[in-house]
Every structure is written in C-alpha cells, then in structure tokens.
Amino acid sequence: MMDKEYSRAEIDALFKECLQLSSDRKYEEAAEGMLKVFMWRIKNLGADDHDTLESMHAVAYISNILENHSEALDLYEKLYELRKNKLGERHRDSLMTLHNIAFTYEKLGEYGKAAEFFRKVLKVREEMSGYEDIETVMTAECLVHVYSSMKDGASEIALREKLYEIKRASDGKIHFDPLEDLYDITEACNKYRYTVKARKYALECFLAHVKDLGLTHKRTLKTLDMLSLAYIRLNEYKKSCALDRVLYKVRAEMYGEKDERTLRVLEEQAYTYFNYEEYEKAKKIYEYLSEMIRGLDDPDKPFLSSVEYYLARSYNALGDREKAKETMERSWRIMCDYYGEDYPDTLSVKEELDNI
Q1: Which of 68, 118, 171, 281 has a CB 3.0–4.6 Å from the CB of 63, allowing a cystine?
Q2: Structural domain boundaries of the chain?
Q3: DSSP assignment of 222-286, as one string?
Q4: What is the pLDDT confidence band of residue 66, given thresholds at 50, 70 and 90?
Q5: What is the mean pLDDT of residues 84-109?
C-alpha cells in the first residue's frame, strides 16, 4: 500500500492536501491519499493516536461519499471502539462517531439499526447538553428522517411535535423556520392519516402562512389544500367547501375566471358536494363548469368529460333521467374521440350510459 517511505512532515502535508481535495469534491484522489496517511499513522503512531483516529474518520467519511457504505461502516465501528476506550462513551468525538454509524446504516437501508443508534446518541446528548446544542437538534432531525423512511408515523409525528415546541420555546436560541416546521408536521399528519392532528396543524399552518406570506402565495395555497383535505377526511365538508370558495376567489383574481386552474377549484368543490349527496349544489356548479369549459377555444377534453360525467350522475340522482342520458352521452363521445372506444375509462362511461 505504501510505495515509499514518508516522513512525519510529508504525511501531515499529504493529510492537508487530501482534505483540500475532499473540499474540492475530488473524492477519488482524496481517498487514495488519505488511505496512505491512515496506513502510515497506524503503523508509526499506533491505532489509538489522535492523528490516526482523525485520518481513520476521514477515510470512512470519503468512503460514504463514494457510496462504499459497507467499508465506511466497518471503519466507523472500529473507530468508535477506539474512541470509546480512549475517551469514554459520552465524549463528543465518540458520540459523533456513533452518529456516523447510524447515518451509514441509514445509507445502507437498515433503518431499524439506524434508528437504534440515533436514539442512543440523542439520549446522551439530551442528558449532557439539551437542545441548546445544535448537535442534539441535528441528531433528532436525522432520527425524524429515519422514522419517515421506516413509515413509523407515530414516532415521526411525536418527534416532530417535540422539536417544534422546543424550537418555539427557545426564544431564538435555536434558529428555525416555524412555517417550514408546521408545514412538515401537517404533511406528516396527512400522510399517516392522523386527521384530527392534521386539522389542528393545517389550520395553524395556513393562518401563519397568510400572515407571513399573504393569501396568494403558492405555499399558502398549498397549506389551504392540506387543511381542506383534513376537513374532508373528518366529514366537515361544509368547511372544505368554504375553503374552496376562498381558493376560487384567489385564483380568479390571479388567473381569471376562465383559466383551468380556477375552474378546477370549482370542480373539487362540486365533487365534494356530490360525494356528500348534495346533488343540487353539485349540479349547479357542474352546469356552470360545463358551459365555461365548452366555451374555451381549446378545452381540456378529459377535464370536460369528467365534468359532464358527474353532471349526468347529479341529474340522475335528482331524477332527471333525460338530461342525465344526454349529458352522459356527451361525456362518452368525448372519451371516444380522445381515448378510443376500447379505452377502460371510455367503457366505464358507456356502462353508466347504458344503465341510465
């Protein structure tokens, strides 16, 4: 491995050169040189020398970047034992190495082991420094990411909530973006269908975004969508429709009443009414949408077909079978022209038409 005899000064210079290569993202070159440094130091300074351990860490770090994760894990595990024996389990360098072991397990897709090691590091850092230490926050956020990969919704949401409260209570000692954290908690609650919590956080998130970014900001409108979803899942469809009316007004002002982005908000509102058997309200909106879309120069055919389809079903639910048949036939003809008669969705519309 060593092709020449190096002096201590030459090895130290090579170490600095490899660090610079790594900073310049020349990782292959850095890896080759850093391995020479490590081998020289372990032979001449001993396995537990500070400089040896430092170069061992560097080799493991570069191996991870080069996606040689198994090699990195082997080095980090050996490094941890050496640092633990020399410095103790609670020393900052030992904890950093244990953190890197957890990170490498995550890279290998072994999320259970990654979570186990991150929890060990987090427990010690909480006891020693609390959350005023940025490294404690960093470990907690890494653990959140692992829980997300594991799809462990209960653990992910609980830790996100804990971090949010800690950051909010820190009076600026911990820098964070409350909008971002609220958004992430809401998204996680919706993802795992913690619907009551999703409604709570989505409302708080929406109001905070309105205050800081304004109602027309795209991020605010996204939080409005998340709040609407929570209302729908809790069968609070009247609140969901009220939000749709707000969103419609915003998009109408931004893009105009005939813009498809505006019309699709109305479609969502009509669909909500339809699902909750408010067929008269659904019918009125679908009739308006049908007229508006057919009046466009180049209407979106699948969009128009969907509107006609649900308008027909609304007519049918209200007992107007003639209009239902006429409208369902329009939907079917659009589907035939756009997709062809044998397309699965076209066949489904034809079946509805035959039933009418």
Answers
A1: 68
A2: 1-66
A3: HHHHHHHHHHHHTT-HHHHHHHHHHHHHHHHHHH-TTSHHHHHHHHHHHHHHHHTT-HHHHHHHH
A4: very high
A5: 96
